[in-house]
Design a protein that fits this description.
Layout (H helix, E strand, L loop, with lengths): L1 H9 L3 E4 L18 H12 L8 E4 L6 H4 L5 H12 L20 H20 L5 E4 L20 H11 L5 E5 L6 H6 L6 E8 L23 E6 L5 H19 L3 E5 L17 H18 L4 E4 L10 H12 L12 H11 L27 H13 L11
Parallel strand pairs: 1-2, 1-3, 3-8, 4-5, 4-7, 5-6, 7-8
Helix pairs in contact: 2-10, 5-6, 8-9, 8-12, 9-10
Length: about 400
């Protein structure tokens, strides 16, 4: 026990944001963005002892002010969200009150609270009280400056990045591994050379929002600041991790950020009902470990992680984000850890289904490194090469060899 406590004392100071009020972000019965995915994640993490680690500080979110929202959203848009929040109705031009983003009472407050959660975590990093932070309730990466989209009303990740810039940070790397293109965050910073946005996602040829191709590389004043890896449908662990490791570390290292902000939508999982990728819990855990290592290597450990998509409410989301919390906090949960009996009983009682018994999908995790060679007959390799050809030369890297 003493060795574990010693290890925890040396782990990075970490801020974890959670409060049941975050489940008020609720589009109603039957909507894929079910708030139960948040409470199940919190329960699993708590029962595995993550919230009690000595290096972890639990923080409550707050409702972000209009001034804070205005750093990444237009005033007229915020006013429209407020109006829909008071009297639910449809404003089609804003993406509000649609089938995708149904209006509900208190929408403004619920959405602004997600932003407040990410701002609490990033402020802890800025003031030095934490080296790392995680807001698994956040990650609303489709919201743009003027419009709701893809279950996202306000963009908490963008607000956190902007807070970092406003605090004096010169370079922020934003890495998005959601199955859907991180279009909202990318668009907000498309002309800002201080922000690198990397999105690894299923190709827009097959999946919403239909954007995020290799030739989308940033605005005229920030060419190379946007990096997109558009993967073919049905990409599995080996292809997904090959793509991640063939693009993300090289570009992030070349960019030399002061902090990494990452979005961990887990809808690339093979069980997710809304996408066509075939990854595992194990692969997504591996990507989080790689981002942790990059933060340690390049940013003195500074790292903010947020949630995102993920619609396999019981089987996937709680395990992926519990692994994420543990990795942010400096001591990963071993893959063959059993999920607590009390948690499985809660799942059975609340959802009427059997919960996973292990924190792993029990897969043979393997991928080919880019160094073994490019296969032009492989659709994943073609997607990787398209990105490398577009962006690598802009950083002085060779698309074939680096």
């Amino acid at each position: 026990m003493s060795s574990f406590n010693d290890e925890m004392q040396s782990a990075p100071a970490s801020c974890v944001v959670w409060d049941p009020s975050l489940t008020a972000y609720n589009f109603g019965a039957g909507h894929p963005m079910a708030p139960g995915r948040l409470s199940l994640t919190a329960d699993l993490a708590e029962q595995l002892g993550l919230f009690e680690r000595p290096n972890v500080t639990m923080a409550e979110p707050y409702i972000a002010s209009d001034q804070e929202l205005l750093t990444v959203h237009d005033a007229d848009y915020i006013a429209d969200v407020r109006s829909v929040s008071l009297v639910p109705h449809t404003i089609e031009a804003r993406g509000l009150g649609t089938e995708e983003d149904p209006a509900f009472l208190g929408m403004h407050e619920a959405s602004a609270r997600l932003v407040g959660g990410s701002l609490v975590a990033v402020e802890a990093i800025i003031d030095g009280s934490a080296q790392r932070g995680v807001n698994f309730s956040g990650g609303m990466h489709h919201a743009s400056r003027t419009k709701a989209s893809g279950f996202c009303i306000y963009n908490d990740a963008a607000a956190a990045v902007q807070r970092l810039l406003d605090s004096g940070v010169q370079k922020v790397a934003y890495v998005d591994i959601d199955a859907h293109h991180g279009d909202g965050t990318e668009s907000i910073f498309y002309d800002d050379p201080r922000v690198l946005t990397i999105s690894l996602h299923e190709s827009g040829l097959f999946l919403f929002p239909g954007t995020g191709f290799a030739n989308e590389t940033g605005g005229a004043s920030a060419i190379g600041s946007a990096v997109n890896v558009a993967l073919p449908a049905h990409t599995d662990d080996a292809g997904w991790l090959r793509a991640f490791h063939a693009v993300v570390p090289q570009i992030v290292r070349a960019f030399e950020p002061e902090i990494i902000v990452s979005q961990h939508g887990c809808d690339s999982h093979r069980d997710d009902p809304l996408t066509h990728l075939n990854t595992s819990v194990d692969a997504q855990r591996e990507a989080a470990l790689s981002l942790s290592a990059l933060a340690n290597e390049l940013c003195e450990g500074r790292w903010l992680a947020v949630g995102g998509g993920g619609y396999s409410i019981v089987n996937v989301v709680p395990r992926v984000w519990t692994h994420l919390i543990a990795i942010v906090a400096g001591k990963p949960v071993p893959l063959r850890t059993e999920t607590p009996v009390a948690w499985r009983e809660r799942v059975q009682a609340s959802f009427g289904v059997e919960a996973p018994r292990l924190m792993t999908d029990d897969v043979d995790l393997w991928w080919r490194s880019w160094e073994v060679g490019y296969n032009p007959a492989d659709a994943v390799d073609r997607a990787i090469m398209a990105t490398r050809k577009e962006v690598f030369p802009l950083y002085g890297l060779d698309p074939w060899f680096d």
